[in-house]
Design a protein that fits this description.
By secondary structure, this protein is α/β, with parallel strands linked by helices. It has two domains: about 180 residues, Flavin prenyltransferase-like (Rossmann fold); about 200 residues, Rossmann fold, CATH 3.40.50. It contains 13 helices and 19 strands. The structure holds ligand PMT. Ligand PMT binds next to helix 9, helix 11 and strand 14.
């Protein structure tokens, strides 16, 4: 899986830097080409001579080569690589990555990187457990970076043994499994809806909901990672929601009507659609042209039904197409999900309940059941990235 792959290995100032030699050895043994980019602090822990001897390439650390002033282009590296791995990644580097502080060659390379980025944190437990580190890791993950951690992952509640860099063989295995999955959906096209819809009341107010888009974006990234071409139709989400993978084409819409039109135009050429958006079922019957002023004690807004996107696609679905829906419920969860699956002609439906802690809107985690004709499968609480894998596995494309 790593044969011929070009890997940029970023090394930072951690005691675990010596383990990067083992990572390089294993990557090269598996046929990869490795280019090291090291931070100034990284060089305090391991010498560039050792690293260039192992990779058969000069190590890049400064913007200019000290000898002849040659300019090292981080942009070229960003285009050259099939993946970037930062191992070990210190709290300082993780913080700079999360906030775009481009004060060394490694960070500028990261910011120019077109390929997927893997980050193996290395620090002591207190630094790792600090809310700022945890927040920075979450930020990196929301940018589509892959965090490789020792233990069960930073989203788990237990922190024992955390912070220590994952063992080199497991880091290399993560890259291998990434590349193994990266062609399983090659040539396939998937439509994904994400986020909320906003239904205008007047120029300053709307009817909306709490969807952040995190679940839909995780699904888009996962399909693209497996080689699919993704049309991501997304409602108004925060500016921090970014689909990093070049295989994701994003179409921004605001209302259910706009989302409906976009989905209808894409769906006929798709192999599958996953409808994760929280679409408003109703919109104000009329939109006031000017801001509505307070007049009496109460106020009435008359609503009209929005188009049901899922049901429309369910009606025109062809045999070769797979249609997947979501159900967000607060009570009688399974019965409601079963009903939606039949009414909207879904091949399967993903049920998440607001009664489960860490599930549903805005969280980085979700707890789902997948319901199909074959029955019901329950999954434990996982990161939305892991949940996306479980869902995409079942597309059978
Ligand atoms: O975005 P996050 O903060 O990460 O939160 C994720 C989520 C909670 C929004 C997501 O996991 C989820 O459950 N999405 C569907 C929410 C929802 O609106 O469910 P529903 O039961 O109202 O709708 C059922 C299905 O029909 C959904 O696939 C929905 O996209 C679709 N639908 C609903 C109404 C409508 N007018 N058109 C539709 O296509």
């Amino acid at each position: 899986m790593l044969q011929g792959k070009k890997i940029v290995l970023g090394i930072t100032g951690s005691i675990a830097a010596y383990k990067s030699c083992l990572i390089i050895r294993q990557l090269i043994k598996k046929g990869a080409e490795v280019q090291v980019v090291i931070t100034p602090a990284g060089k305090e822990f391991i010498t560039p001579i050792t690293l260039s001897a192992l990779t058969s390439k000069p190590v890049i650390s400064e913007f200019f080569s000290q000898r002849d002033g040659t300019w090292h282009s981080h942009v070229d590296l960003g285009l050259w690589a099939d993946a970037m791995l930062i191992a070990p990644a210190t709290a300082a580097t993780i913080g700079k990555m999360a906030n775009g502080i481009a004060d060394n060659m490694l960070i500028t390379t990261y910011l120019s990187m077109k390929a997927p980025v893997f980050v193996a944190p290395a620090m002591d437990l207190d630094m790792y457990a600090h809310p700022s580190t945890q927040q920075n890791l979450k930020t990196l993950q929301s940018y589509g970076n892959h965090i490789i951690e020792s233990g069960t992952g930073f989203l788990a509640s237990k922190l024992e043994g955390k912070g220590r860099m994952e063992e080199p063989e497991n880091i290399v295995a993560s890259l291998e499994s990434y590349f193994a999955g990266s062609c399983s959906m090659k040539g396939k096209k998937v439509l994904i809806t994400a986020g909320p819809t906003y239904e205008k009341i007047d120029p300053v107010r709307f009817i909306g909901n709490y969807s952040s888009g995190k679940m839909g974006f995780a699904l888009a990234e996962e399909c693209a990672r497996r080689g699919a071409q993704v049309e991501l139709v997304c409602g108004p989400v925060s500016a921090s929601m970014q689909a990093a993978h070049p295989g994701v084409h994003r179409i921004d819409v605001e209302s259910a009507k706009e989302m409906h039109e976009a989905c209808l135009s894409f769906f006929p050429s798709m192999d599958a659609a996953i409808l994760c958006a929280a679409v408003a079922d109703f919109a104000p019957e009329t939109v006031a042209e000017r801001k509505i002023k307070r007049t009496g004690d109460d106020m009435l807004i008359r609503l009209k039904p929005n188009p049901d996107i899922a049901a429309s696609l369910g009606q025109i679905k062809e045999k070769h197409q797979t249609l997947v829906g979501f159900a967000l419920e607060t009570h009688d969860e399974e019965a409601h999900a079963q009903d939606k699956m039949k009414r909207k002609n879904f091949d399967f439906i993903v049920l998440n309940s607001l009664n489960d802690e860490g599930a549903g809107f805005r969280t980085d985690t979700n707890k789902i059941s997948i319901i199909s004709q074959a029955g019901k499968e329950d999954f434990p609480l996982k990161s939305k990235q892991e949940v996306a894998k479980d869902i995409v596995d079942r597309l059978n494309l």
